[in-house]
Amino acid sequence: MLEEVNLSNDHRAEIIPLRDPKRWRKDYLGFPVFKHLRGCPGPLCYEFDHIFPYSKGGQPTLENCQILSTKCNRKKSNKINLIAGELRESCFLGNVSG
Description:
- By secondary structure, the chain is α+β, with helices and mostly antiparallel strands.
- 17% of the residues lie in helices and 16% in strands.
């Protein structure tokens, strides 16, 4: 289940150069996240996101899971077919359309 995902072992969470990879990674959109800040609202916090939303039939599997900053995960919500660049820009700018 998703609770078993370990940030330091997730091959999809890119390592940040010159940072401890057991503590720091990049989310799917390239934003830095800190291992000990899971589920909080701050800029370095992260959540596990269902790539294909669970509410729309997505499975709770590791293949359907990615790390996203909390801010981006909340903006993505249960939307499908978002373009990564558009989501990244909306997270960075702090607004989202639609």
